[in-house]
Every structure is written in structure tokens, then in C-alpha cells.
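ok here's Histidinol dehydrogenase, seq below lol
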Amino acid sequence: MKVIQKHELTSLKRSVDQGTEEQRESVKRIIKDVRQGGDNAVNSFTQTFDQVSLNEWRVTEEEVDEAYESIDGEFVEILKEASQNIRQFHEHQTTNSWFEPSADGSILGQKVTPIDAVGIYVPGGTAAYPSSVFMNVIPAQVAGVDRIVMMTPPGKDGKVPAGVLVAAKLLGVQEVYKAGGAQAIAALAYGTETLDPVDKITGPGNVYVALAKREVFGDVDIDMIAGPSEIAVLADETARPNEVAADLLSQAEHDARSSSVLVTTSEQLAKQVQQFVAEQLKSLPRYDIAKASIEDYGAIIVCVNIQEAIDTVNEIAAEHLEIITKDPFQDMAKVKHAGAIFIGPYSSEPVGDYFAGPNHVLPTSGTARFSSPLSVDDFVKKSSIISYSEQALKNNANKIAQFARLEGLEAHARAVETRKERWK
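and the structure came out like this:
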């Protein structure tokens, strides 16, 4: 793990993946084929890309029951407790409609309405992600979404990982389909013979999923275009180097393009963390992935004081930020850009990934400068309410008409002025 200077941060930055021209064109063709061919096109792509031939791509009740029976009872209880924590956290995010009457009889306000139908993409591939089920489905349920469709790629055996199906069952998700990649996103956006389209798609995925989400945006809404995972650790001499090293590697094992950065005021900590990362890396099952991540996107930055360190993490704007310092809450108050902030030595990043309650679908690639974690707000829409009274229009008609004419919109002005005839 290399030590770099602050000005070298640009060498670690990765923009949200735009893909290659070949990948973008491939995604466009897949989407077009699914729009035209429906179920047959989806199943054909599943056979091509996943080497799985499916007679039925909707998960059956029997498959869900089989998955539930195969899971250890203790793990089911852990899933239940985690889902309760996540639900409780998101229930604090709800917003209500509001209406404000004025003395002249007008009423202005905002109406909050859940989105009708949402598609949740749960990635497959090298791992199973029941946590992704919870983090996408629960805020949608808390928001009041009526229809939630889950899409996830099948394994080589044509089945969905048991943990994913059990998580869906615990939440009462009724529609689960076996498809991944761009074809899954196209099916959610435009529908097929057996699947009605949704209004919004959320959840992470590989580059083809990201490109497909970008392509269908506008016909449906999406949550974000997620890049590789990342962590920054802000630490001083009070941090334990073996713990910091373990936390850095927790993100490095996600992806070869994941980024793990230690920002510290302690040269001694920096040296010790270097040693522990090298030592702990050797025994990781995902050694090759984590090693590539640490070598290419792992770094340590030593700062002269805590303010310089805070400025540095603000520049990074990391998806996950851990603060392990003498005064972590005081330092947290100065942080402006981070997806999720983990405070103190007992708040290791996986605590948030799985169990504490906050959402782990977070802005990546520096986009925490302007965006937020997935939340209940992502599953509602807001309508402005305008109910002008007669007196209010009398008082303001001339001003509104003048404003319209200033913009060169005569019909706008006349639409207001025609109502003056009521008062003659």
C-alpha cells in the first residue's frame, strides 16, 4: 500500500464507469431486442450470458420454500433482526404532505405520493447479496410503494441464491425474476408478456447494468449510476493499525477497482497500517481481487494536522468514511462530503453494510459532493398544490400578467386577465 502526497489524489480518482463504445452499443442492442422479443429475448440472453436455459424465469413458491428450508435457522434470525433495524432507521425518513392556508383564503402545499411500481436489481455473479434486497426493498415499502419487483441473475444451476430468496420472502416480495445484466433492466423498464413495466429501477450491478440504467433513464427513473466501492479512513494516533488495515481490506475485496485510502496525522500509524495490510491480505479468500485493488487504488496520505486531514477526506468525498480520532464527533461536524460516516473504533464499515440500519446504497466516485444515500425519498414523488382564492387573484393578477409579458408569453398573461371578467 503506497504512501502518496495530497496532490497525488487525482491518480486514485475513478469516474462513474461510462463503458467502452462496444459495451454501450451492445447494451443498446440488448434493450432493443428485449423490447421487441419480450420473454423469449430475456431467456435467450440468459442462456447466452449465464449459460442457463430456463423454462420459467419467474421464481416459484416452491423455489422460495426450498430456499427457506435450506437456510440455517440462526441465519434466518440474523436476517430478521437486520431487516428490523433497517426498517426502523428508514421509518425516520418519512415525510408527510403539508398544506398552508393564507389569510386571503389561498392554500399552498405539497402532496407526497409513493411511486406505483419499483424494480429492484440484486446483483449475482461471484457472491450473493441478501443485504441488497433489504437496502432496496425496505425503503420502498416504508414509502408505501404498492408493487415491488425483484430481478436477480440465476446461478449455473438455474437457481437464485437461497439467502436472496429468504430475504425476499421475509419482506413479502411477491414478484422475483431470474435475469441479470442489461436484459433484466430492459425487462423492468419496458415489460414483457409476463412482466408489467415499473416506474423506477434501483440497485447496483456490473458495467452492463449501469449502462442499461443510463440508457432507460427518462422512460423510467433510476437511483444512481454506481461505481466501484470505496472507503476512506480518517485516523490519528489513537487508532489501532490492525483494525484500520482490516477495514481498508473490507472494501478492497469487493472489486479490483475498489479504492481504500487512509488519511492520518500519524506517520507511525501509516507505517504500521502498511505492514498489517500486507500481512492480512495474504490470507484473504479473494486475495487476487483485494491485491489488485490495494496496488492500484490503495493509498496512505500523512497530513500535518487534523484540519488538513479533514480537507483531504472532503476532497475524496468517499462512499464510506470512517473517523477514528480523539474527537470523532467534532471532526465529523467538519466533514462536508461523504456517503456514510462511521464514527469511532467500534463502527467498522461492515456494521453499516449489514446490520445497523442506514442504507448501504451510497454515492461513489466522488459523487457524494452532490448526492445522498438511497432513502425513502427515492420512492416518493412530490406534487405542488396551488389553490388560489378569488381575493388572492384580484390582488396579484396584474403582477402575474406583467411577469408573463416580460417573458414574452402573451397567452399566459391573458389566461390570468380573462378571469377579471368575473369581477365586473
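fwiw The chain is about 45% helix and 15% strand. kinda neat tbh
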